[in-house]
Amino acid sequence: MPEAKKPEIGAEIEALCPKCKGATVHVIEVIKTPELMKVMCKTCLNSHRFRPPKGGATKTLKTPKAKKPKLDPQTREERKWNRLLEHADKEKAVSYSMNSSFTENDVIDHTKFGVGVVVKILDHGKITVIFQDGLRNMVQNFKTR
C-alpha cells in the first residue's frame, strides 16, 4: 500500500468547494497542520479552508464554543422600557396628544399603547417613544387648520 503524500504548498488536492458546491481540484495555499490548510479552487478561484471530499479522509472537528443566547429584540426593548420607567415618575405621565410638545424622558400615557417614555426627538414634529411592546414613532406639535 503506498504511503500518503505529505501536503506541500502549491500541490493540487481534491476538496469540497463551498462556492462550486462540489468536489473540485484545489491548490494548497497555507499549511498549519495536515488537517488545517487553506486552499484555492482552480475552478472558481475561491480561497477557503480545506474540506475533504465526501468519502475522503475524515478529520476531527473541534467542539464549537458555547454561544451566549441572543435576547429576543422585544425582550431587550422591554428591559429598556422597564429601566426607563424605574427612573421616571409614572404619576406625572401626560396624556398623549398629537398637538402637544414633548421632550426626551417625558412619560406619556397613550390610550392604545399604554405608558411610554420619550427616548428621542426626531424633529419638530416627530418623537420616538418606547412602550412595553416596542418603539413607536409618534407625531407631536401637530397644528390643525
Please give a quick description of this structure.
With 145 residues, the protein is mainly beta. It has one helix and nine strands; from the N terminus they run ββββαβββββ.
Account of the 3D structure:
With 145 residues, this protein is mainly beta. The protein folds into 2 domains: 12-49, Single Sheet (N-terminal domain of TfIIb); 73-139, no CATH class. Helix content is 10%, strand content 36%. The protein contains 1 helix and 9 strands, in the order ββββαβββββ. The chain has one helix spanning 73-87; strands spanning 12-17, 22-31, 37-41, 47-49, 94-95, 107-110, 114-123, 126-131, 134-139. The strands form 2 sheets. The protein has a 5-stranded mixed beta sheet. Strand 6 (107-110) and strand 7 (114-123) form a beta hairpin. The longest helix is centred in the middle third of the chain and has 15 residues, at 73-87. The chain starts with 11 loop residues before the first strand and ends in a 6-residue tail after the last strand. Residues 57-62 have low confidence and may be disordered.
Q: What is the averaged pLDDT score?
A: 82
Order of helix and strand elements from N to C terminus? EEEEHEEEEE
Q: How many DSSP H or I helices?
A: 1
- Terminal CA distance reads 94 Å
Q: Which residues form runs of ≥5 with pLDDT under 50?
A: 57-62
Give the proportion of residues in helices: 10-25%
Query: What Rg, in angstroms, do the CA atoms define?
Result: 30 Å
Strand count, sense and closure of the main sheet? 5 strands, mixed
Strand residues, percent? 35-45%
Broad structural category: mainly beta
Q: Globular, elongated, flat, extended or rod-shaped: what is the shape?
A: rod-shaped
Number-wise, the strands total 9
